[in-house]
Structures
1.
Amino acid sequence: MAMQQSQIMDAPQSRVRRSRFPKLHIDWALFIALLLLAGVGLFVLYSAGDKSMELVSRQGMRVLIAFLVMIAIAQFSPYSIQFWSPMLFGLGLLLLFAVLLMGEIGKGAQRWLDLGFVTFQPSEIMKLAVPMMLAWYLADAPLPPSKGRLTIAALALIIPTLMVAKQPDLGTSLLIASSGVFVLILAGLSWRFMGTVLILIAASTPVVWNYLLHDYQRQRVLTFINPGIDPLGAGYHINQSTIAIGSGGLYGKGWLNGTQSHLDFLPERSTDFVFAVFSEEFGFLGILILLSLYAFIITRGLIIAMQAQSTFGRLIAGSITLTFFVYVFVNIGMVSGILPVVGVPLPLVSYGGTSIVTLMAGFGILMSIQTHRKLMAN
Amino acid sequence: MARSKRLTLKDHVRETLIFNQRVIIAAIVVMLMTAILITRLVYLQIVNVGHYSLLSENNRVNTLPIPPIRGLIYDRNGILLAQNLPSFTLELVPEHIDNLEQTLAELDKLINLTEQDIARFKKYRKRHKRRFEGVPLRFRLNDQEVARIAVNQYRLAGVEIDAQLTRHYPLGSLAAHAVGYVGRINEAEASRIDESDYSGTNHIGKIGIEKSYEDLLHGTVGFQRVETNAQGRILRVLERTLPIPGKNLYLNLDVKLQAIAEQGFSSKDSEYNTGALVAIDPRDGAVLALASLPTFDPNLFVNGIDTKTYAQLRDSPDRPLFNRALRGQYPPGSTVKPLIGLAGLEFGEVNSHQEIDCPGWYTLKNDPRRYRDWKKEGHSATDLTKAIVESCDVYFYDLSLALGIDNIYSYLSQFGLGELTGIDVEGEKAGLMPSPAWKRRARQLPWFPGETLITGIGQGFMLTTPLQLSSITATLSLRGGRMQPQMLYAVESPETTEFTTIPSTPVKQRPHAEENHWQTIINAMEQVVHGVHGTARRISRNLPFKIAGKTGTAQVFGIKQDEEYVEEDIKKKLRDHALFIGFAPVEDPQIAVAVIVENGGSGGAIAAPIARRVMDQYLLNTEN
């Protein structure tokens, strides 16, 4: 119903615009919400970075590039995006291998690939390439997928996830895994199957704990369960960030007035823990506004997914939107002390390069799906 | 490669249904999870905002103590006895030092670092976590060293000189026992004092006035609330409560008198260098001099005395650390005779004209033992005055026996013997005024009549401190008036310069005697000094005022029956202590002195001259 209504409402508008200009494929609702969010992010960053304009302008440049990437991607039709999906996946896999090899040589944790003029994390590509690959593969046959296709899809999901986890980057591998899982769930994975997998995961926890997790990862989980075990070491982050959030109260201490952040008590305050700075300075009311922005973006994304006209489109749109929520949930959850500390940034607010570009590229795909819809219908 | 696949309409509808159903479920899960986040944030920011605000405040705000400046100590004429001098500590700030070895080498060239300095520095460095805080390398830099470092400061990054105030006693060993000293707070003291009141303070009074008036001298600690960052560096001061400096104390002590007293022991003859002298103004109980010899340099103790020096002081046979004036308990010897005489008159056992015959010894019924007089041939016919002037022992044996120990005990106790004088400085001993009840209790033995006899000449169990002797002398001079000995004259507040003199405290318990009885005793004591046969007659030469006194010798060990006491034969440490008590001027008593010269032998020859020099200084203000 909703789908039909909006089609009728949108149709005359787009027709008018198409007649005068070459159509710019942008979903303005999403665009404005993202712009507002990025604006809030730069504002908080100014405070978190101790009023460093340099930091803000560098991040501003990244945001600008990310928005340009988003708009550029939105101009491609969902068909071509679908077409390039397996190639992107293959490239990502190759780069991950390269990183792992270099890590072997460098004898240490390796996430970055130095291309001479720029360094970037191939794992970021996989955040998009994995759900795209799965959506591409599953859209090729009637849904829900058969057991054979499911097995292949699961392999395409598990291999890159493990490779990223081995780097080691728990946060990113978690995001990659969830983006793939969302595709599978949206594709109609049977509840019974999901139940079985959950039980298997629960059963394999001891194995993962003992053999797959690094010491520091185990430490993080232990610290999460009881921050008191190491109040000056690993528990310090969580203690200080909960103090920052809690002391913000209803109205907050005011912009640039957060004592926790400005007196260096809060670690990682411009990157993963930026939410603590925001909460300390803007309080609960500020958080409600921030969460509303996120809620609006997620709602819009889910609507786009439901209105999408191809299987690939709805799977990838749904996955990107839900993964976006995972970012928000995991980040706020860890900063407020209800989840262990894993390196997940607060989308569009945390300071950081590659992740913001990946995020916006995802929204570019959403916009492409939404804005090319009527052409397809025609 | 997207291959085109024909899908039936039914498939398409079913797919859309499943997808939409899944999206709706996902949306519900998203809402539930968001609700969890919001619940958590409500818990943190609304429910527990107070708790976390407090934590955040504690995080950021540190309370640092500002130690108060310790009060100064002056004598009664305003001569400084204890002050605070800046002391310089050389510190290295790790944050600003690139090459530690090089910096140490540079400093070594300037001030010759010892291995001990470097070892201690490395130990402290491990303890210091904050890289911007100085780590001490050398304490108590002298002026030259400070200057040398200051001149080279420009090329010594991270080298700082920290100035602190350290207690200093400008007169050194003079009156060291009375003034006392401060030292580093030890564990026992730390558990006793109010921790917050002493935060930022390292020193506390250990003995003497420094200990007794610790409360006044210490002052009240101040605080500043400062904002610090996570590394603990102070960013700004939020609030400051200034410390209240300690009170300046003015003592009754007269340093010139004290110096004369101390010189009296050391200058004359190195043999007589141990003993004590206490001088009191009888009118108000002011302690004018409180000397215990030998003495020591209190400055050694302020920043921790080294073990070798301390062992020397502690193990010296002369026991310089022992405050004889307050804690030395000696038999009073013949100095107690005026009191016994007074008791005899009061109880009606004698009158001033009664004479006894002194053959040089005395015996009790049913007791073959001979109680000897110091004068072997005896004093022949002796009345009370002669007995005091010539210090006849036999007279007092007889009188004591007549009085009985109970009367002696009750009358002498009125003078405060066997009790603390209540002086306002810590550590005094009570001495001992023996009684049959005491002997039963302490020794589980009955009292023997012979013990009454020797109590009458100040021997046996009886023990007094020099302070007590000076106190009874003052009481004699006042004819029964008693004032509590007092060290503190006045308290000055350094901020307001408000000057409060301390009122003197009369003692309620006082000996009673009829006026003519006092007169008899005081006349006799005057004869001790001014009479031709007086035991202290040699100090009366060129004496422009009248002294009433009494000499005494206190036996260090007992002499067997029929044994001669020959001074020269006896090792110095076993020789009798020489005592003298006296007050002057007789008509208008202004100073009462008690002197004890350990192993001095003769009270008249050794102890009395020291007392006279002190009286000369006080009454004539001459440096004699």
2.
Amino acid sequence: MSNRQKKQLLLSEVELLYVKSKVYLHPTTSKRDNIVGFLSLSRGPNSTNKDILLSFTPENQLSLEEIKQYNAVDVGDISLDLQTLSLGGTTNANSKASSTSIDRARVVPKPHTSVLSGYSFSTNLSFIYSIQVRKPSSGFWFGSVVINTKDGEKLPIVFFHDNESPSTLKNQKVLNQRMDPFGEDGEVYWGGRDFMGALQKFINTERSTIEPSVYLVNPDSTDLRNFAPFKDKNAPVKKEEPFKLPEVNKFLAAAKWKVLETVATFSAKAKNQVLDMVDEHAPTPIKQIISQPEVQKIGEDFDSARVYLAKWAQQVKDEAEQSQKKFMLDDDIYNKINKELGSSELLTSQEINKTSRRNEITKVEWESFFDYSGRLSLTVNEVKSRIFHGGVSDSVRGEVWLFLLEVYPWDSSAEERQVLVESYETAYEELKLKWVNDEEKRQTDYWKDQKHRIEKDIQRTDRNLPIFQNQKKRRVTVTSMGSNVLPTTRESSPETPDEDEANDDDEYDVSNITNPHLYKMREILITYNEYNENLGYVQGMTDLLSPLYVKFQHEALTFWAFTKFMDRMERNFVRDQSGMKKQMTTLNKLLQFMLPNLYKHLEKCESIDLFFFFRMLLVWFKRELEWDQVLRLWEILWTDYYTSQHHLFFALAILSDNERIIVQNLTRFDEVLKYMNDLSMKLHLNPLLIRSELLFLKFKRMIDIIDRENSLKKVDHTRASVTNDGIIEIGEELRGLLRKEVVIQKEVTREEGMGGG
Amino acid sequence: MTLRKKTLLKVIILGDSGVGKTSLMQQFVNNKFLHQYKATIGADFLTKEITVDNKVVTLQIWDTAGQERFQSLGVAFYRGADCCVLCYDVTNEKSLNNLTSWKDEFLVQSNVANPQDFPFIIIGNKIDIEESRKIPSLSKKLNNITNQGFGGLNYPVFETSAKDSINVEAAFEVIAKMALQQEELNEVNGGDVSDDYNDAINIHLEGNGSGCAC
């Protein structure tokens, strides 16, 4: 059906040049009051480009027929022209602008020209001074444009509900299919962009160099001087926003909102609908994620689509952060997190600057910390601050760790340390010989049980590391810091396996340990089991030992470093689990204090016992992070720089980082647990470190403020002799989080005959 | 409720450390066996949809840490269990002897409505290991444990190999059937007690955070 014919327009008619459907006015904060309508560009009879009308027309002011027409124009000719997407493309004004033919299907009654009547507005382009284009961002879910007229009036803000607009969706889809969801400038596609692209075909716009989101419409030279000074003066153009690519975040985030926003309320039966929706709206990269069999499996496996979607959201977030990693400075990540935490009012910029991550300490830098005698020439606090914010490089890690774990005193000289190492070796050997020579002890049930536990767990600890893999060839030379001092332990221990007997069956016989490094770990743990006889070996300790062993590869030093580490970790392993319970209670309080909304949600999910943190806290995130990241995190935690309980702030950071996904998608205990468990190996250390530091600083500031308020109130109260109304009590659990002293909780005496379970 | 919900059956696997709980679950759900599972810390679950008596049900299988002291925090996920699997290792006599304590521990912590006839099942794992390593006179010892009259573990027994995938499927079929019966029983009894998937009305006491339940 071709309506194209040459015919004059009536004075009361306009030809629609461009329409964007599903744009909204938000007159109040309530969604119910939103007004849906069309944003259009139209031309009346005998008019120039400057006379083109820019109008907002609510749907309810149009007849059904007119709505049809508007919609038809909206989706009619969106054979997507990538060039129209590139902003600033004023030169290639397309034929429509100068067309003399009139398409009757595009002719509608002229929109009300009054600036504002019944929420509609209409103004000609020459009357517009500037347009501010606000992309969809985390603060505002919908992108919008703010139009300022020449007499200084601000028209109602127009919001683009991209997820409802057929043309925007269609364009997005086309772009996604082309695997190119961005314009040439790397900016994400959305409805407002479309609109600006269309507008720029008809009229000249200049981006303000002062405020890049503002476009001056048909500016004269004064405007340009004021708002685009660089351009006008021919001065070198300052490059704006050098990091264009991270816009992918907003793009991915926008896509996520579209689906998740709608889906959060879906029940389990809607899984298929959800998949359809994902199919329809998700950009290509997300579809690729979703088409992965394991992801699909999750969807199929689980009765509820929510966990599936939560995971999907997490992957989207992850992708976004990955891309950020490459293109953004740490400070930018920091700023983002800080904004999200809403702590800008609570923290000074000085504090904020202190928190950014620094480079790791190199061997050269580390050595520069010491004087000629090998004595530290910095304060311990300075060194710790440096380690806390940067970590140490792997080449010097072993030595730094010995200081951090206080195997080496901070004030020792190189010579003193050398002597110390020898005495550590002697002391260890003595300890070890005690059980080696005690035939009777090794016959007791307890000892056998414990040995079995140790061997069984050693066999399944970090076996993916090359050092712990079984060699096909026997008799591997063990090179380690101490191999000449403590030649081989094999002769000294009666449990030494006969290597010739080793066969493929060793997987069944846990006591048959053929890897020399695993064997040394076994010796260390059996010795520790005797050394700390009340506690003994408990499951999880192999996870704590293995990084130390791998770094030192020296049996005696590893043993002593492990005992120091265990001093602070002992409370995690005590028989009645009181140490773990206490930490989880503290974390619970901290969560209430810092993230009350999330806490309320977890309460609804029956998840406030925070059981999902059990594994994370027990072995300090060893199962949640990649190997290198574990090493980094631990050295940071060992500094006790702000608090000896920084691991709880790290845990809080994980929750905070996932707050929105949890609140939007998860509603049950098992869903929350599954989601949190499956974060394992998907966490990114640096952003979490920054977040945890900020959370700590914010926490400290909040306590300070409360204390100050309380002391003021107390003064009032003593005067008026009233009760302590309005005094905010900070419990001991929370206040304890400000202390740097390591919390020590020892196991109670082990009764004779009590097992090690 | 007019809208019939899909049946979700909650199964808890218990037993000494290293008997193969994780392996059994992985073999059943994902049909795979790795030589190097890590020792389980905390708890996790996997789900699998199967058909029992022409009814599609979702098994939610909970894998737990084997060292006894870690059970004290397990209350949270024992709740609403429909069946409990007690595992031992056919080469480890101690793990067999501990079955009774695992059962008792479960009943104390889960607070099930019908401890007398709550469905348990026993799995002896690792039958792929050569005969000489197995517990001497295993069947006699097993008999002693299961047939002690009242209080004995008079439950179905399966011998499996998670490694070679022997009997795993069959065991879980029985588990699912028992769990389904238990679930239906709960429903008849208006079993809100052990079914936390009902839309229970939550009563929130103002200003009284229920605190940590651990």
